[in-house]
Design brief:
Layout lengths: L3 E3 L19 H8 L3 H12 L3 E4 L3 E4 L10 E6 L2 E6 L6 H10 L5 H16 L11 E3 L1
Antiparallel strand pairs: 1-6, 2-3, 3-4, 4-5
Helix pairs in contact: 2-4
């Protein structure tokens, strides 16, 4: 089965790359079990296009991508977790839909912010991962 996640003993990479995050970051792994493939793929695109920037410890900005969209999203860390809003203050439609449907807000912007932090902390050795049971089967 192409590109499926199958159990296997795999050591963490020396340097975490964007395409590897989906096999190591906890929230991404959980969303994969919930069938949220589109959110995971969109988050990966946001990171690949360098659209996520971090400001301090509780604010991320997802920049608009020319030719794709014109909306800037602000992701903030609140006491209830990450929240995603458009720069005009309106709730991100994807985040709002997940919040209404599942009681927990998540969107590609919030996931990309989480993955951004994970990758930077891993690569700066702020977090050390134990061996996980995940790999990509080709």
């Amino acid at each position: 089965m192409k590109n499926s996640i199958q159990p296997s003993q795999v050591e963490p990479p020396e340097i975490m790359r964007i395409e590897q995050i989906k096999f190591w970051e906890e929230h991404t792994l959980f969303l994969a079990t919930q069938g949220k493939k589109a959110i995971i793929e969109k988050a990966e695109k946001l990171l690949n296009n360098n659209q996520i920037s971090q400001y301090g410890t509780a604010l991320w900005v997802c920049k608009a991508r020319e030719g794709y969209n014109s909306t800037i999203y602000n992701i903030s860390l609140t006491e209830n977790g990450l929240v995603c809003k458009k720069s005009n203050g309106a709730m991100c439609p994807g985040f709002n839909k997940e919040l209404k449907d599942n009681g927990a807000g998540v969107c590609s912007h919030t996931l990309a912010a989480e993955q951004f932090v994970f990758m930077n902390k891993f690569n700066s050795r702020e977090i050390i991962l134990p061996t996980k049971l995940m790999k990509e089967e080709k």
